[in-house]
Amino acid sequence: MTVTVRFAPSPTGFLHIGNARPALFNWLYALKTGGSFVLRYDDTDLERSTAEFAAAIAEDLGWLGIAPDRVYRQSERIAAYDAAAERLKAAGLLYPCYETAEELERRRARARALGRPPVYDRAGLRLTPEERAALEAEGRKPHWRFLLPNHAGDPFSTVRTEESWQDLCRGEQAVDLASLSDPVLIRADGTYLYTLPSIVDDIEMGITHVIRGEDHVANTAVQLAIFAALGAKPPVFAHHNLLTTVSGEGLSKRKGALSLRSLREAGYEPLAVASLAVLTGTRHAIEPAESLAALAGQVELTDISRSAAKFNPDDLRPLNARLVHGLPFAAVSERLAALGIGGGAPFWDAVRANCETVADAQRWWQVVAGGEDMPVDAAPSPEDAEYLKLAAELLPAEPWDETTWGAWTGALKAQTGRKGKALFLPLRLALTGAAHGPDMKTFLPVIGRRSTVGRLP
């Protein structure tokens, strides 16, 4: 069996880090098993779904390194859902109901007040053809519910009926179908809720594994019953814990919380985002992965905790810095050029250990370029003026390499007796405008002799 997984976002907003988690778990599982990955846009909500958001989702997934093998749009597959709905109607498993939302809420409130679970009483199933016709003559349009198999022949006398499955994240799971209301599959306006299109697509697209958030656990029992009603073998399910904010709040596309787009614009590396999104809430230490393939080899679905996973964006900067420090020039050359940064590999090799993001190199390129745009966070003390004049006199001739800094400071130490901070700091402040920064052994040749002379008295 070839593993086939899917990620089915609604193109109604930008992906956030919480969406990235199931996308990545599915992609990593496909990588690990040699399977395929389906991107399926749940775009049946025509009022809120847009082509722009769909394009943004594809772009954000590509930035993470996810390249779908197949792409579908549910808005183009309505005929398949209509056919499945007709099959269920013909089998007596999809029945019309005419209650308004207000009427249903009053019934639920009454049931709760009487201490009963607010489960739908299947009143729509009791209606005669004449009663239905009368309701429709009033202008009411039906919504359609799926008749759960939680009875022994009499649908108005439910019995405990456990629907169970082996969850790859949570182990053995079971839900009593008698505790659930018959789910609405078709709205009164004729549009489909998520459930039926998802099942039809999973069947027709050969989805073997559904890896998704634990907020779908309760839905799984219903979906298993519908798979059976359509005569199809269900996929294997895995429900992972959800990412929340540090304060425990859920993430929302509508609020723009931690969107992938904003993280990318902030300069974070996709592997830093992927590593934190995947490893948070698992038994693994959060370390930057060298590649998605390496991350896939590291994580098992059974490693995921049952507790909520709190995502702290503050953890991204140190994680990102570790990745940036190891990036070779070839991996960043195009981005540096786009930022107007020159200097080639010698410059990047000199400054990367002092960059948390690739864009941080701009500050050090401004130091190399000098002039009015050079940032100055700190300047040498006036007391070091004579020392810096002597430094200018002892400045070695070119060519310069990584031995130049040591030769220069060695000569100054021999002449002045200075050592440690007193020897090095005035030079660093004069040349870089900062008390801390790149190793001067590699940075000094990048600055060059001409610029160095211009910064000394």
UniProtKB/TrEMBL annotation:
An individual GO BP term: glutamyl-tRNA aminoacylation
Catalytic activity field: tRNA(Glu) + L-glutamate + ATP = L-glutamyl-tRNA(Glu) + AMP + diphosphate
Family that this chain belongs to: Belongs to the class-I aminoacyl-tRNA synthetase family. Glutamate--tRNA ligase type 1 subfamily.
Cellular component annotations (GO), alphabetically ordered: cytoplasm
Motif ('HIGH' region): 9-19
SUPFAM superfamilies: An anticodon-binding domain of class I aminoacyl-tRNA synthetases (SSF48163), Nucleotidylyl transferase (SSF52374)
Biological role: Catalyzes the attachment of glutamate to tRNA(Glu) in a two-step reaction: glutamate is first activated by ATP to form Glu-AMP and then transferred to the acceptor end of tRNA(Glu).
Binding site for ATP: K253
Residue intervals of the Glutamyl/glutaminyl-tRNA synthetase class Ib catalytic domain: 3-316
Enzyme class: ligase
UniProt source species: Stappia taiwanensis
EC number: 6.1.1.17
Subunit and partners: Monomer.
InterPro entries, alphabetized: aa-tRNA-synth_I_cd-bd (IPR045462), aa-tRNA-synth_I_codon-bd_sub2 (IPR020751), aa-tRNA-synth_I_CS (IPR001412), aa_tRNA-synth_I_cd-bd_sf (IPR008925), Glu-tRNA-ligase_bac/mito (IPR004527), Glu/Gln-tRNA-synth (IPR000924), Glu/Gln-tRNA-synth_Ib_cat-dom (IPR020058), GluQ/Sye (IPR049940)
Name by which UniProt lists this protein: Glutamate--tRNA ligase
Gene Ontology MF term list: ATP binding; glutamate-tRNA ligase activity; tRNA binding
Motif ('KMSKS' region): 250-254
Every Aminoacyl-tRNA synthetase class I anticodon-binding domain range: 381-456
Compartments it resides in: Cytoplasm
Domain of life, source organism: Bacteria
Keyword entries, A-Z: Aminoacyl-tRNA synthetase, ATP-binding, Cytoplasm, Ligase, Nucleotide-binding, Protein biosynthesis
One Pfam family this sequence matches: Anticodon_2
